[in-house]
Design goal:
The chain is α+β, with helices and mostly antiparallel strands. The chain has one domain. Helices cover 24% and strands 19% of the residues. It is built from 1 helix and 4 strands; from the N terminus they run E-E-H-E-E. A two-stranded antiparallel sheet has the order 1-2. The longest helix is centred in the middle third of the chain and has 20 residues. The protein starts with a strand and ends in a 6-residue tail after the last strand.
Length: 83
């Protein structure tokens, strides 16, 4: 922890502090997903891609949605592009 500005005896406002952790690796980038949940998600993504390729009319897109314990392939209408 350190102050960001110089000390002044006449200053009326509090001095700002910079707080740093000794261990800089605090954040997790995996959001608490286990390896098994990650594999399940990858398998669902490949299934969604297969379903999208098999859609003969091309009206829908397939995406994986949900929280890690309840991933599911969701069928969504493809957005219509106007010219």
């Amino acid at each position: 922890m350190m102050h960001l500005d110089k000390y002044s005896s006449t200053a009326t406002a509090a001095r700002p502090l910079l707080i740093q952790s000794r261990d800089r690796i605090i954040k997790k980038s995996d959001y608490g997903i286990t390896m098994q949940e990650r594999e399940d998600c990858k398998n669902l993504v490949t299934d969604a891609k297969k379903q999208e390729e098999e859609d003969s009319l091309g009206e829908f897109i397939y995406r994986v949605r949900g929280v890690p314990e309840k991933f599911a392939v969701v069928k969504l209408h493809k957005p219509v592009r106007r010219q």
